[in-house]
Design a protein that fits this description.
Layout lengths: L1 H13 L5 E3 H13 L12 H13 L5 H7 L5 E3 L4 E4 L2
Antiparallel strand pairs: 1-3, 2-3
Length: 90
C-alpha cells in the first residue's frame, strides 16, 4: 500500500542518524509527499493538517487524526513516546 510504504520510508529516513524523530516531522514529510507541499512548513497555508487527514482517511476509510494513524501503523522495531518522539530500537 502506498500510504504505508511512504510512512515507513519517512520513519526510516528520519531516524537514520540518531534513531529518533519527532512525530511532527513525519507528518510534514507525508504532507510534502501527498499534498505536494514545498518549502518550510511555517510558510504553508493554514489548514494543511486537515487536508492531509482527509487524504489519508479517504484511502483508509477510517476517521483518524494523522498522528493516530501513524501511531497505529508504526513499523516493528519503533515506538512513539508520550512526548511524540519516534524511537528506533536496535
Amino acid at each position: 500500500m502506498l500510504l504505508l510504504d511512504e510512512l515507513y520510508a519517512s520513519i526510516y529516513s528520519l531516524t537514520s542518524d540518531d534513531s529518533q524523530a519527532n512525530l511532527s516531522s513525519v507528518t510534514e514529510v507525508l504532507a510534502r509527499e501527498f499534498l505536494g507541499k514545498e518549502g518550510p512548513c511555517s510558510d504553508w497555508k493554514s489548514g494543511w493538517p486537515k487536508y492531509l487527514k482527509n487524504f489519508i482517511n479517504s484511502i483508509t476509510g477510517e476517521n483518524l487524526k494523522v498522528t493516530t494513524w501513524i501511531k497505529n501503523n508504526i513499523p516493528t522495531g519503533f515506538q512513539v513516546t508520550e512526548k511524540g518522539v519516534i524511537i528506533k530500537f536496535e
